[in-house]
């Protein structure tokens, strides 16, 4: 096929599938020759059936529009003619070509067999950093103007422009990358053979390797670190802040709409004082303080002044990205000395070039997703300087492949290996050694803390943002989770002797050296281990079912949680469980012994390579880890106060069993491992206090008040003028089992409020079950599709994608649970109304809460006041903070739960948020109030 003619097609149809008698209603075609768009054509077609309303609302094509249009069969020959001697290109080829060929077949024509190029697939490979591969979002990323999304000619034209950029990118890749892509091409959907050959021929004639390093068939981009300038801090801290914060300062000169916030400077000064006095600090900085900048400035000054790095830890990767891409570049413009800041993550985030080079040539486990992943990684290597996989999106099973080639899989990299100097992880650690600020996350911070500080470079001072999550992150890290699905997955990955799995793939190369090893014994061991695992988890499942029948307080829908320990379970049941666990540990140890013997035998083979050795050692490591986990869960040391619990999934198979263990308190651990060992730890968040008191967080984290500074920074926003809180007094009381009535009242109120606010509403739930029921009910009672209804866990997509969908529709209602209570910024007119369905109390029967509550009661204290209420207040403050994100925002917070007014403890919630008007009245009166307000 001559590489000169490419025909791009896009179709609008009555539905998703020609098998369901769906038909084409519009066809758009764009022809490219000599890298130029030379022709574009468009026609409406009569589908001989009604166009569904949702297709009309998507495309604006009505039944009236196609009434006098030709049938497809009238245009079929012209379509075939246009594709003569050309490539067929579409954004998702299977869809367009499937419809086209179905229509051709129905009209008695031969189907098209042209070579195809799928621009979705090719974009995933050649633009690995694109945030989305939907046509409109990809066009936006590539700065291509899209006139009429969901119209055939406009979509085809945009696809043609994207293809020209893709072709240009392909022809600028280094030869090694192209050669590797050519080896993978056969398993891709797109026919790229001739294009790749032409690009390789051109690459051989040009010198384009200066920007890339090529080694062992891989081309990758690696920048050299420039030498650091020695900086002498000549100004005092006060002068430094004056030059930034005060009138005519750097902030005013760098930000167009700069408004001075007194709290921001106050926070910077508090942090600097904590550093100087070698104290810890708890700083609650309310919405609008600008806390990121407020802590970055003193951190930088201290780091440069003392020539010692400072660690900044965040809970979410979203905040990490914001710090690196928005805040740090701003700070670089504000100060007059060079600074170095970087993100450091765990080894499992970084690609190992050596492992990738090895796996690239291995075809034993390749399916389409893995081939696509390899292709994506090949191109990404020509762009990335960090090797951090979070920069790109992989196909779903591509992440399993990445686990095999991450820096975590290379174990200790030999310093004499040629790959050592190319290791992304080693380079990241080296950059971290010389950085002023290292941004990390709570998970790596805790891993480092509980492993003798071997993962992060040494530090004395630390700033923890989103600090209200530190306690739970530390507890999860000191705890564990184990389930039969992951245990079976490990065993299945290793496999029996004859199965094409890890063990078979390794030993297949060394059969001559392994004649005396009895692999039938291995297979028997593997079968026995799986049998014992099934027996244990089957027993645990039915054991929890039995407890549920005896204890009516345990939930009987979804997941059932049951706290277990030797003291809480009947002795006979406990002895049976322990006997079964010991049998599994016994079989696991036999598997480990067999693999160790295999490794020792292979050591004597002349051709035993290090990659295969690593595979066997990894298998051993995984099995040993699961032995340790079983022992910690069922045979724990008596000196550590852990809570253990079982969860079973009543909707899944009777084998869906999950085992958990967590310490009931990490306060002593954090005190011993963090606060005693570090000079200064600054903890900040928008939500650390309850009724202006830090007492709860101080106890949770194990801080001692003799080395502690506490500070509250008030918001610069005028909440009194920006927010109205509305609480209905006529909702059914859930306490009396009126859950369905409550949901109905909530749904009616949501729709009535939506009329007032034109949608633009975020509804926060405390349970997914209630969210799902409300979503279903809202769909039923919405007589017309007036609002775009988006439900977390129902509408597909990540939290960021749901938020983007919410903002892109004029009238939308977003229903969210747990993760939407915080970290979601929807500023301006996109959000005018926040509905809080229930006060966010933790379920009282959650095993961790139960165990903590029991400890509190044993100390003669009130578990509700000491634990349940403070946690609920902090989460409520997070939810409340979603509404007002700038001085110009205005809105309503509608709280369906009257306990905030009626209950004795209600004032703990209202007195923990900014002072705002609270109206307690009938729903009807509140809706009138809302109309007046807007």
From TrEMBL:
Required cofactor names: [4Fe-4S] cluster
PROSITE patterns xrefs: HELICASE_ATP_BIND_1 (PS51192), HELICASE_ATP_BIND_2 (PS51193)
SUPFAM superfamilies linked: P-loop containing nucleoside triphosphate hydrolases, Ribonuclease H-like
Residue sites binding ATP per the record: 285-292
Enzyme Commission code: 3.1.-.-
Stored InterPro entries: ATP-dep_Helicase_C, DEAD/DEAH_box_helicase_dom, DinG, DinG/Rad3-like, DnaQ, Helic_SF1/SF2_ATP-bd_DinG/Rad3, Helicase_ATP-bd, P-loop_NTPase
Domain Helicase ATP-binding: 250-514, 272-509
Family assignment from sequence similarity: Belongs to the helicase family. DinG subfamily. Type 2 sub-subfamily.
PANTHER family, per the entry: DNA REPAIR DEAD HELICASE RAD3/XP-D SUBFAMILY MEMBER, REGULATOR OF TELOMERE ELONGATION HELICASE 1
Designated name of the protein: 3'-5' exonuclease DinG
Gene name of the record: dinG
């Amino acid at each position: 096929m001559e590489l000169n003619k490419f025909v791009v097609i896009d179709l609008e149809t009555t539905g998703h599938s020609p098998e369901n008698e769906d038909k084409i209603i519009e066809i758009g075609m764009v022809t490219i020759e000599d890298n130029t768009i030379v022709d574009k054509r468009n026609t409406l077609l009569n589908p001989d059936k009604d166009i569904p309303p949702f297709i009309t609302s998507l495309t604006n094509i009505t039944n009236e529009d196609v009434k006098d249009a030709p049938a497809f069969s009238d245009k079929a020959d012209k379509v075939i003619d246009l594709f003569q001697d050309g490539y067929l290109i579409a954004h998702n080829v299977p869809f367009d070509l499937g419809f086209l060929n179905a229509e051709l077949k129905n009209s008695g024509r031969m189907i098209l067999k042209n070579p195809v190029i799928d621009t979705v697939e090719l974009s995933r490979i050649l633009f690995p950093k694109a945030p989305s591969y939907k046509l409109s979002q990809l066009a936006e990323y590539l700065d291509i103007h899209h006139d009429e999304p969901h119209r055939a000619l406009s979509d085809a034209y945009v696809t043609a422009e994207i293809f020209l950029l893709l072709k240009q990118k392909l022809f600028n890749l280094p030869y090694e990358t192209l050669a590797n892509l050519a080896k993978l091409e056969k398993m891709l959907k797109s026919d790229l053979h001739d294009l790749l050959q032409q690009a390789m021929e051109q690459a051989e004639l040009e010198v384009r390797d200066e920007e890339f390093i090529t080694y062992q068939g891989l081309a990758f981009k690696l920048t050299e670190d420039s030498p650091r300038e020695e900086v002498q801090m000549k100004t005092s801290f006060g002068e430094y802040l004056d030059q930034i914060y005060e009138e005519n300062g750097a902030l005013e000169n760098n930000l167009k709409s700069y408004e001075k916030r007194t709290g921001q400077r106050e926070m910077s000064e508090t942090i600097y004082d904590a550093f100087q006095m070698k104290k810890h600090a708890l700083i609650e900085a309310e919405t609008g303080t600008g806390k990121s900048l407020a802590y970055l400035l003193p951190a930088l000054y201290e780091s440069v002044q003392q020539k010692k790095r400072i660690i900044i830890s965040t809970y979410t990767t979203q905040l990490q990205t914001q710090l690196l891409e928005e805040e740090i570049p701003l700070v670089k413009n504000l100060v007059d000395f060079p600074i170095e800041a970087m993100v450091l993550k765990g080894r499992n985030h970084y690609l190992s070039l050596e492992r990738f080079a090895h796996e690239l040539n291995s075809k034993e486990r390749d399916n389409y997703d893995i081939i696509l992943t390899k292709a994506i990684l090949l191109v990404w290597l020509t762009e990335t300087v960090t090797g951090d996989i979070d920069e790109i999106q992989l196909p779903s099973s591509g992440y399993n492949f990445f686990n095999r080639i991450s820096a975590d899989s290379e174990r200790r990299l030999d310093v004499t290996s040629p790959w050592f100097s190319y290791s992304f992880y080693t380079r990241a650690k080296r950059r971290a050694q010389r950085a002023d600020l290292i941004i990390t996350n709570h998970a790596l911070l805790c891993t480092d803390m509980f492993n003798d500080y071997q993962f992060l470079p040494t530090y004395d001072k630390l700033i923890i943002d989103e600090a209200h999550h530190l306690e739970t992150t530390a507890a999860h890290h000191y705890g564990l989770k184990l389930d039969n699905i992951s245990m079976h997955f490990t065993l299945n990955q290793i496999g029996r002797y004859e199965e094409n799995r890890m063990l078979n793939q390794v030993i297949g190369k060394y059969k001559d050296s392994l004649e005396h090893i009895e692999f039938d014994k291995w297979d028997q061991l593997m079968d026995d281990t799986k049998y014992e695992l099934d027996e244990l988890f089957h027993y645990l499942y039915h054991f929890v079912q039995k407890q549920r029948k005896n204890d009516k307080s345990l939930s009987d829908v979804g997941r059932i949680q049951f706290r277990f320990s030797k003291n809480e379970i009947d002795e006979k049941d406990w002895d049976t469980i322990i006997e079964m666990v010991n049998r599994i540990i016994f079989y696991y140890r036999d598997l480990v012994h067999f693999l160790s013997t295999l490794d020792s035998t292979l050591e004597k083979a002349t051709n035993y390579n290090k990659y295969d050795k690593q595979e066997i050692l990894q298998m051993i490591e995984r099995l040993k880890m699961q032995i340790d986990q079983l022992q910690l869960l069922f045979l724990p040391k008596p000196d550590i106060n852990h809570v253990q619990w079982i969860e079973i999934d009543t909707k899944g198979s009777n084998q869906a069993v999950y085992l958990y263990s967590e310490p009931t308190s990490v306060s002593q651990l954090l005190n011993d491992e963090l606060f005693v060992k570090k000079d200064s730890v600054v903890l900040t968040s928008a939500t650390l206090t309850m009724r202006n008191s830090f007492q709860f967080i101080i106890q949770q984290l194990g801080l001692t008040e003799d080395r502690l500074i506490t500070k509250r920074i008030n918001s610069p926003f005028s909440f009194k003028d920006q927010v109205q809180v509305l609480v209905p007094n006529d909702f059914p009381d859930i306490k009396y089992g009126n859950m369905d009535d409550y949901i109905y009242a909530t749904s009616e109120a949501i729709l009535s409020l939506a009329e007032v606010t034109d949608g633009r509403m975020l509804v926060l739930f405390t349970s997914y079950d209630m969210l799902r029921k409300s979503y279903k009910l809202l769909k039923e009672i919405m007589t017309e599709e007036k609002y775009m209804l988006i439900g977390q866990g129902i509408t597909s997509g990540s939290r960021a994608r749901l938020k983007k969908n919410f903002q892109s529709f004029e009238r939308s209602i977003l229903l969210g649970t747990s993760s939407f209570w915080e970290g979601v910024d929807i500023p301006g007119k996109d959000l005018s109304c926040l509905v809080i369905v229930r006060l966010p109390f933790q379920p009282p029967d959650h095993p961790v809460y139960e165990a903590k509550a029991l400890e509190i009661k044993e100390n003669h204290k009130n578990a509700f006041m000491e634990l349940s209420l403070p946690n609920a207040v902090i989460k409520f403050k997070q939810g409340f903070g979603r509404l007002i994100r700038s001085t110009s925002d205005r809105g309503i917070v509608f709280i369906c739960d009257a306990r905030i007014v009626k209950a004795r403890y209600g004032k703990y919630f209202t007195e923990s948020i900014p002072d705002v008007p609270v109206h307690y009245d009938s729903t009807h009166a509140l809706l009138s109030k809302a109309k007046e307000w807007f």
